[in-house]
Amino acid sequence: MREFKVTEKDVNSTIVAEQYTKLGYKTTICVLVLNSGFEVVGSSAPVDPAIYDFETGKKFAREKAVEKVWEYLGSIVSYEKAIHDAQQDEKRRHEEALKAEAEAFAKTKVDEMANESHEVPPPPHMEIIKPDVVEVLDTKA
């Protein structure tokens, strides 16, 4: 059975490109491009622009973007699981219906057989002769 979960490997293999930019005086933006073409954005900014560092901003912006990749993949896997579960439920209902139909058919056949005559006809090459008159002999006379 398929496992419906997202792993770190899934997240990392989904990311095909990264772009970073600085906006304003202290904001770093990270854009992660996914193999589906979907893009997620993360941002970071220190409280004080005097301590802004682009490399540190990239690290934190990327972490925030990666969190969104987890959410994105989680929603896809959740949807796939819902479809899988619905298909399994439909398959189970179909199998139960077929079983009930087969059981009803078998019961009908058994009932028909119980109501039929149980006389076994003679083979076609044998002829049964039934006398028209039976003569009773008096053995005491």
Word description of this protein:
The structure is a single chain. This protein is an alpha+beta fold. The chain has 2 helices and 3 strands, in the order αβββα. Strands 1-2-3 form a 3-stranded antiparallel β-sheet. The chain is rod-shaped, with a radius of gyration of 41 Å.
Ordered list of secondary-structure elements with their pairings:
Blueprint: H1 8-14, E1 15-23, E2 27-34, E3 39-44, H2 54-115
Antiparallel strand pairs: 1-2, 2-3
- The number of distinct helices, counting runs of at least 4 residues, comes to 2
Distance between the termini: 92 Å
Fraction of residues in H or I helices: 40-55%
Strand runs, count: 3
Strand content: 15-25%
Q: Note poorly predicted spans.
A: none
Radius of gyration: 41 Å
| Largest sheet entry | 3 strands, antiparallel
Short description:
The chain has 141 residues and is α+β, with helices and mostly antiparallel strands. It has helices at 8-14, 54-115; strands at 15-23, 27-34, 39-44.
Essential attributes:
single chain, 141 residues, alpha+beta, 3-stranded antiparallel beta sheet, 2 helices, 3 strands
